[in-house]
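Design request, tokens follow.
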């Protein structure tokens, strides 16, 4: 397995985008405040130093849901690294959608296309660029998958999803 760098985000942009996404009642069946699913530590000025989202379920439209674990820490004035994550998409049984999971731990990034531990695909074995992944990009991918219904790890997925993921990366990195 190839080692991957920890994902880096502009912490303020990332948190603000997550807050907006999680409150969007058109995308999220049970909108949540980020603060209700995330434990964060702050310095005296109120700046986020680190965060943990542990075993939280985000219920999407049509009763599909995303099981989320994510841990991150500030590394500079405006940048944070996501040190560990697991994003597990679990579709409603009659939806016809397939389950999947993206995991990152100890610089090992892989996809479990069936959602379980049976098969691990390295980043170079999937059509999407999953390097530097995070919860915001996972939410984008999940919402697109539930509407376009093209499995994210099939060859044709790159043409369908990659430009939206790239746009999401720019939104949380500060790049235009």
């Amino acid at each position: 397995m190839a080692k991957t760098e920890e994902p880096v985000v502009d912490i303020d942009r990332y948190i603000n985008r997550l807050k907006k996404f999680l409150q969007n009642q058109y995308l999220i069946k049970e909108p949540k405040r980020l603060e209700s699913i995330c434990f964060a530590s702050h310095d005296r000025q109120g700046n986020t130093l680190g965060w943990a989202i542990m075993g939280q379920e985000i219920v999407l439209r049509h009763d599909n849901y995303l099981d989320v674990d994510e841990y991150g820490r500030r590394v500079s004035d405006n940048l944070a690294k996501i040190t560990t994550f697991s994003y597990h998409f679990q579709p409603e049984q009659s939806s016809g959608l397939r389950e999947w999971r993206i995991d990152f731990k100890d610089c090992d990034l892989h996809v479990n296309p069936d959602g379980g531990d049976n098969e691990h695909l390295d980043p170079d074995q999937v059509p999407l660029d999953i390097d530097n992944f995070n919860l915001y990009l996972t939410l984008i991918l999940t919402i697109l998958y539930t509407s376009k219904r093209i499995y994210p790890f099939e060859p044709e997925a790159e043409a369908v999803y990659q430009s939206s993921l790239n746009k999401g990366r720019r939104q949380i990195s500060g790049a235009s």
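Comment from the thread starter after seeing the answer: thanks! The helical segments are 11-22, 34-37, 135-148, 157-173.
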